[in-house]
Amino acid sequence: MPTDSPAPERPARTLFSRLSPGGERNFADTLRDERTGGVLLLLGALAALLWANLAPESYRAVSGTVVGPAALHLDLDLAHWAADGLLAIFFFVVGLELKREITVGELRHVATAALPAAAAVGGMVVPAGIYLAVNAAMPGGAPQGWAVPTATDIAFAVGVLAIVGRGLPVALRAFLLTLAVVDDLLAIIIIAVGYTDSVTLGLLLGSFGCVALFALALRRGVRTPFLLVPLALAAWALLHASGVHATIAGVLIGFAVPAAPGSAAPASRAPGAAPDEHADHSLAEHYEHLWRPVSAGFAVPVFALFAAGVTVEVATIGATFTEPVGLGVVLGLVLGKPLGITLATFLVARFTRARLAPGLGWWDVIGVGLLGGIGFTVSLLVGSLAFGTGTVLDDQVVVGVLAASLIAALGGGAVLSWRGRVHAARPGAS
């Protein structure tokens, strides 16, 4: 009698195996979503606060762990690697956005850029003035932190707008994006000029040379990462060693990427080869598409993990709202941002030909101004540059930025949610 043949073995299942190509694309697209980036940034900050308060010694030990070769001036602790290294990726994406906006976007035309650009300037000048006034009037003031409340966190602000913005005109999102991009550009200039003590000229020129070679390679159609990545890393390392904050290298590399339509394809293609799938797009757009998930999903949340970890004590909270540094940050972001953005927009609209886009009202501008008070990523970076990471004054900056950003998000979100309902109720609204 024949024996039964053994049942075929089932293939073993692998836990945590690599995603399929389709799954990887979906995951990356999720990280590109503005709301996802804002949520991950918030989770990084919350994780930092929990870690720093539940296990402060562990948090300080990990943050202070030194990694890197001392011979290359890269023996940095993990907190500085997050601020100097990972944030360079964030600023690289910012540089790509700036290049694209200047080349083909809203900043290309003076008429469309005037209002949001003026709003960005007003949204930086007034908070800085409020901070300086508070620190000049109160004993123990520290004027070197004037730039902390001048920055708007584009990821958080646009994320809040994406959550509450149903029914709002598309022009309002364009206004906020352009404002935030100009704000980032001005913040970059402030970091490069205002928080650089000394510069080694030879190393600075070496960094610029690497950026120039990077740009030349791209213009010659070179796309291989085996050349481009080492050039970018060399530009970053030389700039870091020169004394200029290393994140500026990310901006310079981003600016070096061509943003003209069609620049994503290599300059030459082998005969008979299929057309490049990115031929109709700019190279800046292509790189932004590739690197935004890395920035939003990893670089910025990890920076938040190491930047927002302050041990919250009653004394620290009290000092934030009573001492000049913390009070100047809170008032600058919560009051100075909406006041500066709204006032500058009004003055430009009143005395020039620039006008609000059709369908927008002044309450929409006020709502965006309130969202401008969300000053997380760059504000924390400037605070660490001004006062030193982990110092008493830096702790006040962290608590002040977190508190002000929460107030700004709630206030701006409430106003824009109401405005969304108003716009949706108008005749002809879809």
Return the CATH topology.
Answer: Na+/H+ antiporter like fold
- Catalogue the unreliable spans: 13-17, 270-275
Rounded to an integer in angstroms, the radius of gyration calculated over CA atoms is 24 Å
CATH class: Mainly Alpha
Strands ordered across the widest β-sheet: 1-2
- The total tally of domains equals 1
Alpha carbon gap, first and last residue:
76 Å
What is the number of beta strands?
A: 2
- Quote the beta fraction: under 5%
Number of helices: 16
Q: What is the percent of helical residues? A: 55-70%
- Topology order in helix (H) and strand (E) letters: HHHEEHHHHHHHHHHHHH
CATH architecture: Up-down Bundle
Q: Helices and strands: which structural class?
A: mainly alpha
Overall mean confidence score, pLDDT: 84
Largest sheet entry? 2 strands, antiparallel
The CATH homologous superfamily? Na+/H+ antiporter like domain
Q: What spatial form do the alpha-carbon principal axes imply? A: globular
What would your notes on this structure say?
Strands 1-2 form a two-stranded antiparallel sheet. Helix 1 packs across helix 11, helix 2 runs parallel beside helix 11 and helix 13 runs antiparallel to helix 14. The chain is 69% helix and 1% strand. The chain has 430 residues and is mainly α. The longest helix has 34 residues. The protein contains 16 helices and two strands. The protein has one domain: Na+/H+ antiporter like domain (Na+/H+ antiporter like fold, Up-down Bundle). About 3% of the residues have low confidence.
